[in-house]
Design goal:
alpha/beta, two-stranded antiparallel ribbon, 7 helices, Rossmann fold, single chain, 205 residues, seven-stranded mixed sheet, binds S-adenosylmethionine
Protein backbone atom coordinates (compact mmCIF):
# COMPACT_ATOMS: atom_id res chain seq x y z
CA UNK A 1 0.00 0.00 0.00
CA UNK A 2 1.41 3.47 -0.85
CA UNK A 3 2.44 5.57 2.16
CA UNK A 4 -0.19 8.11 3.20
CA UNK A 5 0.99 11.50 2.04
CA UNK A 6 -1.66 13.82 3.46
CA UNK A 7 -4.09 14.12 6.34
CA UNK A 8 -7.32 15.93 7.07
CA UNK A 9 -7.96 17.95 10.23
CA UNK A 10 -10.35 20.78 11.12
CA UNK A 11 -11.69 20.61 7.59
CA UNK A 12 -8.27 21.25 6.03
CA UNK A 13 -6.06 19.14 3.79
CA UNK A 14 -2.57 19.03 5.26
CA UNK A 15 0.24 17.58 3.19
CA UNK A 16 2.90 15.35 4.72
CA UNK A 17 6.63 15.69 4.04
CA UNK A 18 6.42 12.72 1.66
CA UNK A 19 3.75 14.34 -0.56
CA UNK A 20 5.08 14.72 -4.14
CA UNK A 21 4.29 18.48 -4.25
CA UNK A 22 6.09 19.04 -0.91
CA UNK A 23 9.08 17.06 -2.12
CA UNK A 24 9.09 19.03 -5.36
CA UNK A 25 9.25 22.36 -3.47
CA UNK A 26 12.13 21.05 -1.40
CA UNK A 27 13.96 19.94 -4.52
CA UNK A 28 13.44 23.41 -6.00
CA UNK A 29 15.26 24.90 -3.00
CA UNK A 30 12.49 25.89 -0.57
CA UNK A 31 14.29 24.63 2.54
CA UNK A 32 13.00 26.21 5.75
CA UNK A 33 15.63 27.77 7.98
CA UNK A 34 13.89 28.62 11.29
CA UNK A 35 11.87 25.46 12.07
CA UNK A 36 9.20 26.13 9.46
CA UNK A 37 9.89 22.76 7.82
CA UNK A 38 6.48 21.29 8.79
CA UNK A 39 3.11 22.16 10.26
CA UNK A 40 3.32 22.33 14.07
CA UNK A 41 0.63 21.13 16.47
CA UNK A 42 -0.06 24.26 18.56
CA UNK A 43 -2.16 25.68 15.71
CA UNK A 44 -4.70 22.98 16.57
CA UNK A 45 -5.08 24.49 20.07
CA UNK A 46 -6.20 27.80 18.57
CA UNK A 47 -8.41 26.11 15.95
CA UNK A 48 -10.16 24.22 18.75
CA UNK A 49 -10.52 27.39 20.83
CA UNK A 50 -12.04 29.24 17.87
CA UNK A 51 -14.74 26.60 17.45
CA UNK A 52 -16.29 27.88 20.69
CA UNK A 53 -15.11 31.49 20.30
CA UNK A 54 -15.68 32.21 16.61
CA UNK A 55 -14.17 35.24 14.93
CA UNK A 56 -16.47 37.76 13.27
CA UNK A 57 -17.10 36.98 9.61
CA UNK A 58 -14.72 38.86 7.30
CA UNK A 59 -12.44 39.94 10.19
CA UNK A 60 -8.90 40.88 9.08
CA UNK A 61 -6.51 38.31 10.49
CA UNK A 62 -2.70 38.40 10.57
CA UNK A 63 -0.91 35.11 11.18
CA UNK A 64 2.63 35.79 12.44
CA UNK A 65 5.40 33.22 12.05
CA UNK A 66 2.88 31.59 9.74
CA UNK A 67 5.05 28.80 8.35
CA UNK A 68 2.74 26.71 6.17
CA UNK A 69 -0.17 29.01 7.09
CA UNK A 70 -2.72 26.42 8.14
CA UNK A 71 -4.00 28.42 11.10
CA UNK A 72 -4.71 31.39 8.86
CA UNK A 73 -6.26 29.13 6.23
CA UNK A 74 -8.53 27.66 8.91
CA UNK A 75 -9.81 31.18 9.66
CA UNK A 76 -10.34 31.84 5.96
CA UNK A 77 -12.30 28.63 5.61
CA UNK A 78 -14.32 28.67 8.80
CA UNK A 79 -15.09 32.39 9.22
CA UNK A 80 -14.48 33.77 5.74
CA UNK A 81 -11.76 35.95 7.29
CA UNK A 82 -9.39 38.01 5.15
CA UNK A 83 -6.07 36.52 6.09
CA UNK A 84 -2.47 37.61 5.66
CA UNK A 85 0.60 35.72 6.85
CA UNK A 86 4.09 36.92 7.64
CA UNK A 87 7.20 34.87 8.25
CA UNK A 88 10.87 35.77 8.61
CA UNK A 89 11.79 32.87 6.34
CA UNK A 90 10.85 33.31 2.69
CA UNK A 91 11.35 29.59 2.10
CA UNK A 92 8.17 28.66 4.00
CA UNK A 93 5.94 30.81 1.80
CA UNK A 94 5.68 28.38 -1.16
CA UNK A 95 4.32 25.76 1.27
CA UNK A 96 1.65 28.23 2.38
CA UNK A 97 0.73 28.88 -1.27
CA UNK A 98 0.54 25.14 -1.88
CA UNK A 99 -1.79 24.61 1.08
CA UNK A 100 -3.98 27.52 -0.01
CA UNK A 101 -4.20 25.86 -3.44
CA UNK A 102 -5.01 22.34 -2.23
CA UNK A 103 -7.66 23.74 0.10
CA UNK A 104 -9.15 26.10 -2.48
CA UNK A 105 -8.60 29.10 -0.17
CA UNK A 106 -7.03 32.56 -0.39
CA UNK A 107 -4.34 33.84 1.94
CA UNK A 108 -1.82 36.56 1.10
CA UNK A 109 1.65 36.43 2.60
CA UNK A 110 5.04 38.10 2.72
CA UNK A 111 8.48 37.83 4.27
CA UNK A 112 8.64 40.02 7.37
CA UNK A 113 9.92 39.67 10.91
CA UNK A 114 8.04 40.40 14.16
CA UNK A 115 10.19 43.49 14.62
CA UNK A 116 9.23 44.88 11.22
CA UNK A 117 5.52 45.00 12.04
CA UNK A 118 4.96 48.68 12.84
CA UNK A 119 1.91 50.21 14.52
CA UNK A 120 0.81 51.50 11.13
CA UNK A 121 1.18 48.02 9.55
CA UNK A 122 -0.69 46.34 12.41
CA UNK A 123 -3.55 48.83 12.23
CA UNK A 124 -4.81 46.96 9.13
CA UNK A 125 -5.78 43.94 11.25
CA UNK A 126 -8.48 43.03 13.77
CA UNK A 127 -6.86 39.87 15.11
CA UNK A 128 -3.25 38.65 15.29
CA UNK A 129 -2.45 35.01 15.91
CA UNK A 130 0.52 32.69 15.91
CA UNK A 131 1.41 29.17 16.98
CA UNK A 132 4.76 27.74 18.04
CA UNK A 133 6.51 31.08 17.52
CA UNK A 134 8.12 31.71 20.92
CA UNK A 135 11.00 29.26 21.28
CA UNK A 136 14.02 31.53 21.78
CA UNK A 137 14.42 34.07 24.62
CA UNK A 138 14.66 37.01 22.21
CA UNK A 139 11.27 36.03 20.73
CA UNK A 140 9.56 36.58 24.09
CA UNK A 141 10.83 40.16 24.10
CA UNK A 142 10.02 40.78 20.43
CA UNK A 143 6.51 39.38 20.84
CA UNK A 144 5.84 41.40 24.01
CA UNK A 145 6.78 44.58 22.13
CA UNK A 146 4.65 43.47 19.17
CA UNK A 147 1.66 42.94 21.49
CA UNK A 148 2.17 46.44 22.89
CA UNK A 149 2.26 47.89 19.37
CA UNK A 150 -0.89 45.94 18.48
CA UNK A 151 -2.70 47.67 21.33
CA UNK A 152 -1.68 51.07 19.96
CA UNK A 153 -2.72 49.93 16.47
CA UNK A 154 -6.25 49.12 17.63
CA UNK A 155 -5.97 45.35 17.05
CA UNK A 156 -8.83 43.75 19.01
CA UNK A 157 -7.23 40.47 20.02
CA UNK A 158 -3.89 38.63 20.00
CA UNK A 159 -3.78 34.83 20.33
CA UNK A 160 -0.48 32.94 20.72
CA UNK A 161 -0.35 29.19 21.34
CA UNK A 162 2.60 27.12 22.49
CA UNK A 163 3.43 23.80 24.14
CA UNK A 164 4.76 25.93 27.04
CA UNK A 165 8.41 26.28 26.23
CA UNK A 166 10.17 28.54 28.78
CA UNK A 167 10.28 31.67 26.52
CA UNK A 168 6.52 31.39 25.94
CA UNK A 169 5.86 31.03 29.68
CA UNK A 170 8.03 34.11 30.28
CA UNK A 171 6.02 36.03 27.66
CA UNK A 172 2.71 34.92 29.19
CA UNK A 173 3.81 35.97 32.71
CA UNK A 174 5.05 39.33 31.45
CA UNK A 175 1.72 39.98 29.72
CA UNK A 176 -0.21 38.97 32.86
CA UNK A 177 1.92 41.29 35.01
CA UNK A 178 1.93 44.31 32.73
CA UNK A 179 -1.23 44.28 30.60
CA UNK A 180 -4.94 44.24 31.38
CA UNK A 181 -7.44 41.74 29.91
CA UNK A 182 -4.98 38.86 29.57
CA UNK A 183 -6.00 35.22 29.78
CA UNK A 184 -3.74 32.17 29.67
CA UNK A 185 -5.78 29.12 28.80
CA UNK A 186 -4.58 25.55 29.24
CA UNK A 187 -5.59 23.21 26.41
CA UNK A 188 -5.41 19.45 25.95
CA UNK A 189 -6.46 17.79 22.72
CA UNK A 190 -6.84 14.11 21.92
CA UNK A 191 -7.88 14.69 18.31
CA UNK A 192 -6.74 15.08 15.61
CA UNK A 193 -3.50 14.48 17.58
CA UNK A 194 -2.47 14.46 21.21
CA UNK A 195 -1.52 18.07 21.81
CA UNK A 196 -1.24 20.18 24.92
CA UNK A 197 -0.15 23.67 25.75
CA UNK A 198 -1.46 27.12 26.49
CA UNK A 199 -3.05 29.94 24.56
CA UNK A 200 -2.09 33.47 25.54
CA UNK A 201 -5.09 35.68 24.81
CA UNK A 202 -4.72 39.44 24.96
CA UNK A 203 -7.91 41.44 24.47
CA UNK A 204 -7.29 45.06 23.66
CA UNK A 205 -10.92 46.14 23.46
C1 LIG B 1 8.01 26.33 14.75
S1 LIG B 1 7.63 27.17 13.28
C2 LIG B 1 5.85 27.31 13.39
C3 LIG B 1 5.22 27.58 12.07
C4 LIG B 1 3.69 27.66 12.08
N1 LIG B 1 3.23 28.73 12.94
C5 LIG B 1 3.07 26.34 12.51
O1 LIG B 1 2.45 26.31 13.57
O2 LIG B 1 3.19 25.37 11.77
C6 LIG B 1 8.15 28.84 13.65
C7 LIG B 1 7.97 29.82 12.49
O3 LIG B 1 8.27 31.15 12.95
C8 LIG B 1 9.07 31.78 11.97
N2 LIG B 1 9.85 32.83 12.65
C9 LIG B 1 10.91 32.66 13.47
N3 LIG B 1 11.37 33.84 13.92
C10 LIG B 1 10.57 34.79 13.35
C11 LIG B 1 10.56 36.22 13.41
N4 LIG B 1 11.44 36.90 14.15
N5 LIG B 1 9.62 36.88 12.72
C12 LIG B 1 8.72 36.19 11.96
N6 LIG B 1 8.70 34.85 11.85
C13 LIG B 1 9.62 34.15 12.54
C14 LIG B 1 9.90 30.66 11.38
O4 LIG B 1 10.45 30.96 10.13
C15 LIG B 1 8.90 29.52 11.34
O5 LIG B 1 8.17 29.47 10.15
Amino acid sequence: MPAKNHRRAFGLNILNANHPRVRQLKREGAVAEIHGNKFWNSSYLIMDYLKKHPLPKRARVLEIGCGWGLLGLYCAKRFDNRVHGIDADKNVLPYLDLHAEVNGLKMTREKKTFKQLTVSYLSSFDVIMGADICFWDQMADELFKLIKRSEKAGVRQVLIADPCRPPFSALASRCQDRLSKVEVLEKFLKRPVNASGEILIVNNK
